[in-house]
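Quick log. Single chain, no ligands specified.
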Amino acid sequence: MNVRSFRLSDYMPTSQLLKASLSEECCEKTLDAFARQLSLDGELVLVAEQQDTAGESMIVGLVIGTIDRNSGYYYRLAVHPDYRNQGVGRALVSGMEQKFQQRNVKQIMIAADEHTEVVLPWFETLGYGSKDVSRSLQQLRIVTG
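-> predicted structure:
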């Protein structure tokens, strides 16, 4: 598996990944924030790619990060259902954590909403606790525009 920065040619496969991984409502919100983040700082969007059985590279995961008021936020993490529980999410979070550390953010937070509540226990396994969760997403530029 390879984790790398988003490229413009990734837009269609990542959009398809979001549709396959998220509810319809969550996908719509995420696509809007995704577009805003790409216009602000595309380096904070990472993809995980893996070779399929034919040897073709395919995108199996995506993390959208953002920096707001000198804090780094994991806005959305999506892993294709066929590739869950294989370390894809962990690799994406690790890659984004490195990006945040390179930018010297004061803290790293998980942007939580009704769509991400279910993954909070998973983030706990990575060492994130309740103090690392922000539920005030309306303050984020990628959400409010």
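Residues 3 and 95 are 7 Å apart (CA to CA).
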